[in-house]
TrEMBL record:
Homotetramer. It comes from Carnegiea gigantea. This is 2-hydroxyacyl-CoA lyase. Residues 18-131 form the Thiamine pyrophosphate enzyme N-terminal TPP-binding domain. The keyword Magnesium applies. The keyword Hydrolase does not apply. It is an enzyme of class 4 (lyase). Catalyzes a carbon-carbon cleavage reaction; cleaves a 2-hydroxy-3-methylacyl-CoA into formyl-CoA and a 2-methyl-branched fatty aldehyde.
Amino acid sequence: MAESNPQNPENGTVQIDGNTLVAMSLARAGVDKMFGVVGIPVTSVATRAVAVGIRFIAFHNEQSAGYAASAYGYLTGKPGILLTVSGPGCVHGLAGLSNAAVNTWPMVMISGSCDQRDVGKGDFQELDQIAAVKPFSKFSVKAASISDIPKSVFDALAHAGSGRPGGCYLDLPSDVLHQKVSAAEAEDLIAKALEESSSRVQKETEIETVSSKDVSIAVSALRQAQRPLIVFGKGAAYARAEDSLRKLVESTGIPFLPTPMGKGLVPDTHELAATAARSLAIGQCDVALVVGARLNWLLHFGEPPKWSNDVKFILVDVDKEEIERRKPYLGLVGDAKKVLDLINKEIKDDPFCLGKNHPWVEAISKKVKDNVSRMEGQLAKDVVPFNFFTPLRIIRDKIIELGSPAPVLVSEGANTMDVGRAVLPQMEPRTRLDAGTWGTMGVGLGYCIAAAVACPDRLVVAVEGDSGFGFSAMEVETLVRYQLPVVVIVFNNGGVYGGDRRNPEEITGPYKDDPAPTSFVPEAKYHVLMDAFGGKGYVVRDPAELKSALDESFSATKPAVINVIIDPYAGAESGRMQHKN
Ligand SMILES: Cc1ncc(C[n+]2csc(CCOP(=O)(O)OP(=O)(O)O)c2C)c(N)n1
Ligand SMILES: *[C@@H]1O[C@H](CO)[C@@H](O)[C@H](O)[C@H]1NC(C)=O
Ligand SMILES: *[C@@H]1O[C@H](CO)[C@@H](O)[C@H](O)[C@H]1NC(C)=O
Ligand SMILES: [Mg+2]
């Protein structure tokens, strides 16, 4: 296959294999971090990637590594890369790929696969991986020979990040990884593929520009509204629309409501924040400008009874199909920041502002004050054994004390996440990672690792239920191995939602003496798990112990687990989602 390059006879004979060509192609595409688990046939892909300057973060389980890759894509705006082995490695990786799809974050899963000559014979870890990834990937490609590698790498990366971001898949058969080309030929393949791929993918997924007519329809709807509301989500965060959003909110005086991961684009403490008057804001608004957020379950589908019957939705989304499905009053297809800038420009020519005394703004701010003072009342008490409020208040105060740069807050669990979302303030964009669109447990440790790697100037603080933590708890070893500045706070109430909440009549049958399906070992020593790997573990049961553990671990900026013992009967079954259980 190798042809010597007449211009470079000295390196025309240097041979490189598929592993090296994958690494070179990734580096050339700007990849600087990878997450994964090595083994046959991809170990050399990882070591060659490191050799060309890519940081490889090695995990215990592809599921966590995949969650990390997806969050890394969200935080950095560049596709996160997951590397897995074939068969079961690829299957575990589907967790990450589906997470990228459902949260619309850019990610590429790269899996080794079995030798192409042995397909159908029951080879080691054989699986039709292209078929397996289909429901969760925007684009997938198999490099069927070494000369396909650069093009496949660039195409997968370009598709992941273009249009509506999502997961893509690259399949690398083991025979291809062992094929060889000359170094000169490798350079040619890379150069040619680079040139072709970016322009072609861009053309295929070009986003239409919003018409100025639609922009003025949007602005006049907002201008004429009695009770306008601006809703934004992680799509706006991904588009880095924070400055444009803040400008729109402040110039018009329209109250705003972030989705959980939209929190922080405009600070939670802003006087126009309607989060603490969520029911009123959603229930009464007559025009809602929804930016980078889908009208899914998190926003009650945009339907009555939570929303009023005749609310006019103006949807800003990068995905035309998403808008067409919803049939809103008006859809503006495009990048959230670009669309907001057009809206801001149109408003600037004929400004309007509701002002503090506008009845709608006043009604919202009154509701906010009531809700906040009720919440503060609950937070003020020192309750021991701990409920959710007391430790969350202590954590909140400590986070506020840290100031800027704010830590990245990772959160999962039911009660822990739901109460935590209301108590813990988000002051800066893209500083919250939680269970997301699917409400997925097990994302926490992967997200912590992604955040630590993506945001080296920030501390990472995870507030997790003990069940949520347990899904990927072994990755605390990964925190220690790479010495990442991550403090994992486990709200240990002994189970999924906490203690055994069964009615006595449900406790029958031959296995009635088994622990409840929701129960774990009470007061499990999760801090000892951290000790086992040489990180710092704490167990705390009262305010003084928690404060001291937070002081020490936040200033050490080293891996730590704080095991917070919580009353198993505090909180509610299913957290906030009791109506769905
Ligand atoms: C992948 C996945 N499996 C199972 C669930 C169902 N589930 C919802 S919340 C939860 C755990 C809640 O317990 P915990 O994390 O301890 O939080 P708590 O309510 O006790 O604070 C589980 C298992 C889920 N959301 N995702
Ligand atoms: C081959 O030679 C070219 C030109 O001298 C050089 O740019 C390139 O880096 C060389 N490749 C390798 C793999 O040595
Ligand atoms: C009170 O505020 C919390 C968040 O701070 C919010 O989740 C809850 O929905 C609010 N209650 C109402 C009735 O709006
Ligand atoms: Mg729990």
